[in-house]
Amino acid sequence: MTLVGIRRACRLSANGGQLGKAQMERKLGLRECDRCGASITSFCPSLPTLSSVGNYVKGPRDVLERKIAEAECVPLDVVREYVRHRIFLECEKVFGICPNCGQHLATRRARQCLACYASRHTDAP
Ligand SMILES: [Zn+2]
Ligand SMILES: [Zn+2]
Q1: In angstroms, what is the span from residue 68 Cα to ligand 1's centroid?
Q2: What range does the domain containing 28 cover?
Q3: Pair (70, 120) in one structural domain
Q4: Are residues 68 and 116 in the same domain?
Q5: Which residue in 56, 25, 59, 57 sits closest to 41, CA to CA?
Q6: 92 C-alpha vs ligand 1 centroid, how far in Å?
Q7: What is the pLDDT of residues 36-90, one digit of tens each?
Q8: pTM for the complete prediction?
């Protein structure tokens, strides 16, 4: 193979690599956080990724985030949002209020009040 031929092959494989990565990027939607109700990424790492990064949870936060981002081919800011709301639970938990007795419900979406046992059937917080 000539030098030009080799260069061309490299460029082709580099392009192929980019294409492969783009195809691997997931369609990332939004979901409501169970705790704070904010609209956050619906991204969730696969089980193999979660188990492979298990050892990093106690280490530096940015290392953990980068490991997940690399393993899942998602942008780092998406991983940060996921980690903040769903691993370290740093967002403020919002409780629902019982319309019957005014006590805090267990979660913002709780269907039944643990204080008076009244149940509610709407999704409204
Ligand atoms: Zn949250
Ligand atoms: Zn109640």
Answers
A1: 19
A2: 3-87
A3: no
A4: no
A5: 25
A6: 7
A7: 999 999 999 999 999 999 889 889 999 999 999 999 999 999 999 999 999 999 9
A8: 0.65
